[in-house]
Amino acid sequence: MVGRQRRRESLVFAALIPTLIALSAAGDTFVPGDRLEDGSSLVSSDGSFKLGFFTPGSRISGIWTVVWVANRDSPLPNRTGILSISINGSLSLFDSKGVVYWSTPSTRAAGPVAKLLDDANFVVAGAGGGEYAWQSFDHPTNTLLPGMKLWVDRRTGLTKNLTSWKSDDEPGAGDYTFFLDPDGDPQIFLLEGTKRVFSGVPDMRSYSMFKLLFVSNADEAYYQFSNRNKSVLSRLVVQSKGLIQRLVWIESEGEGEGEWSVFWSGPTDRCEGFRFCGIFGICDANESPLCNCLQGFDPKSPENWNLMDWKDGCRRRTAVDCQNGTDGFVLVANAKLPDTTMVVVNEMGREECREGCLRNCSCTAYAIKEILDGGRSGCMLWSGALTDLRVYDNGGQDLFVRLARADIVTVPLHFTVVLGSCPIVKRQNEEMAKSRELDLPLFDLAAIVAATNHFSTDNLLGEGGFGPVYKGRLEGKQEVAVKRLAKSSSQGVEQFMNEVRLIAKLQHRNLVRLLGCCIDGEERLLIYEYMPNRGLDSFLFGNTKGVLLDWATRWRIITGVARGLLYLHQDSRFRIIHRDLKAGNVLLDDDMNPKISDFGMARIFAGDETEGITRRVVGTYGYMSPEYAMDGSFSVKSDVFSFGVLVLEIISGRRNRGILHPVRKLNLLAGGLLSGYPIPMVEVLKCIQIGLLCVQDRPEDRPEMAAVVLMLGGDSGGLPHPKKPEFVAARERAEGSSTSSRGLTRTFNDITVSDMGGR
Ligand SMILES: *[C@@H]1O[C@H](CO)[C@@H](O)[C@H](O)[C@H]1NC(C)=O
Ligand SMILES: *[C@@H]1O[C@H](CO)[C@@H](O)[C@H](O)[C@H]1NC(C)=O
Ligand SMILES: *[C@@H]1O[C@H](CO)[C@@H](O)[C@H](O)[C@H]1NC(C)=O
Ligand SMILES: *[C@@H]1O[C@H](CO)[C@@H](O)[C@H](O)[C@H]1NC(C)=O
Ligand SMILES: *[C@@H]1O[C@H](CO)[C@@H](O)[C@H](O)[C@H]1NC(C)=O
Ligand SMILES: *[C@@H]1O[C@H](CO)[C@@H](O)[C@H](O)[C@H]1NC(C)=O
């Protein structure tokens, strides 16, 4: 029976600030017969952590950070507490009367020793070593330190959660729990009581400072992190007011002690409320309203929805077909995947995953989960309603949502689209395959392994459709980008080499240069020149870099990409269709000159092409022309379409996604374009118009790249007007309004260029 008293004592761990190591002289071990009294402490051998008593709110000076509390729910009444370890290995904490406030089970370990380790784990082991009989890491409180696990044992159901303190002064278990839910695809939830208030750890990628690990197998699932740099302290804490934060210790520059700085904190915005937008709703923190229905879905309660009460969610406009194989998918890019409680995960490849979803009528969406090491990928299949879906500006994953054919439309300025089956891809001229001799350097696998530090995640530049890309430094110090092709290619060595030689022959200042390749066993590697400024996408869609792109740079990029594409289409000896032109495939050199990358990759990958048919879906969905998306037919005009999308993205700074926004303006202010730079509006408007000409529904209406290059160079007076997209026309008919087109401003009335006059 412990009364609630003002002054309480608790046993704690505290982080020792490195400059203050000298404060402590105590040892790190503790054996039967020893007594740790209030006022004394154990200190880990490297001085990083100390175990001692504290009084919340008063006796912890600024230099201590409490990272673990033994008797969090049974505080001692005063400062007479004693910690001891008995001969049977049981730790116990008692007061002057011998009343026990906290204890651990006894163990069979002979000659038990308690020890405070350098990583803050307080352990009990036998004198002979061996497994720990007990360890504090198995009993986390509100803090996750490197080496600790947020964990669930699938066999026994045992869990290790984090639970907040009651308040900043009360270490007792508070209202918020951070726990790992093993059902379906494991995910992490922050609970308030039993209510899920937040899911996922958005900082789920590795940073240079620390490495994150998420493991799930038949026996267990856990989340863990480690610090890459031992001199950097980092911890994850569930704060008493319901925030989950990653804190990093920053040494102060001068004499002072330094401080914990918030590296990441969540929930950070309203999108992160659980099921915030209801079923089939999608949240975008940068949009107003925050919630929208997925393409092909309408609000269930339109009135509530318009009042920004989104909890009823959305419902399907057209029922999926299932029988006739006509359903398709819409891509939601940069998504935080929907609630995965009911998800089924298997190891199917991309195409099988899609087919698997189509085959099962209850499947509503799929995603490919990239597992970099070993080149394997996983297939995630959702059934039933999708909830808890949001999109980020950058990062996140691709999610494919099943729709009935009728709802698969291209939407102007969203251009979201989908794939039906993707039938015949004509093999390009046979003579192309019979490639001419070119001495393309063949790299040794060992050299590439060394150059990329064993394909280390630290060297990872990005993840393309065909596999991860790593930065490497060859022995001669030259920096290169190494593309490691996914193992799914069934292509033979000779065919691969033929294709690679073909690519190597393509040389243009707006194409990334292939330096060589490497084939070794299952490994297929392509070695490219390294582009220090990386992809255009990070500049366009990043939060801050957009302002670096003044108009002159954007203009140079647009014209450069146009020339590179023209070369692929016409000027090279062969007619090459890129098929995956997008911001991420436009790389920037030191001077921000654009270079198209990944050209020809689609062909390299058409491994099952022997009968002139490919089942492999290539391309990136937001950039696909309607005819390619629907019927799989592609031509240079489908590249022109992708180019048009890219131009509009370069101007607007907004990415195309699979969300149907009721009103989305091509807002030049939001794109960072107008932030302080004088811009020639005539050029901007010309580019917008050319972009729109390129994204017309019908391929025959779109200009060829040669014409585009001419238009970019000429004045805009004689440019044709783009035709009204069929989708808009159909809508307007349905709504009973006029179908007449009044040119640019009428047809594309969601483009606003009017509010720029005064700038
Ligand atoms: C400390 O608390 C114990 C248990 O309530 C009590 O027996 C003891 O007298 C107290 N000692 C002091 C010094 O207050
Ligand atoms: C272990 O030793 C402590 C102290 O001697 C005692 O209180 C406790 O009951 C013992 N536990 C077992 C399981 O024997
Ligand atoms: C962890 O949290 C889950 C969900 O609230 C709960 O079922 C489980 O019992 C908790 N585990 C512990 C050890 O408190
Ligand atoms: C580790 O961090 C310290 C302090 O920030 C820095 O000085 C040091 O260079 C880092 N070491 C490595 C290997 O990154
Ligand atoms: C599917 O096929 C059946 C039989 O051919 C036909 O009656 C039905 O209308 C088709 N459904 C759709 C959505 O095309
Ligand atoms: C279809 O998916 C549901 C939900 O994932 C699953 O329970 C069912 O077994 C699947 N059916 C088939 C035929 O695979």
From TrEMBL:
Gene3D superfamilies: Bulb-type lectin domain, Phosphorylase Kinase, domain 1, Transferase(Phosphotransferase) domain 1. InterPro entries: Bulb-type_lectin_dom (IPR001480), Bulb-type_lectin_dom_sf (IPR036426), Kinase-like_dom_sf (IPR011009), Pan_app (IPR003609), Prot_kinase_dom (IPR000719), S_locus_glycoprot_dom (IPR000858), Ser-Thr/Tyr_kinase_cat_dom (IPR001245), Ser/Thr_kinase_AS (IPR008271). Residues 1-26 form the signal peptide. Residues 731-759 are annotated as: Disordered. GO terms for biological process: recognition of pollen; response to other organism. Residues 455-724 form the Protein kinase domain. It is an enzyme of class 2 (transferase). This is Receptor-like serine/threonine-protein kinase. It comes from Spirodela intermedia (Intermediate duckweed). The lineage of its organism: Eukaryota, Viridiplantae, Streptophyta, Embryophyta, Tracheophyta.
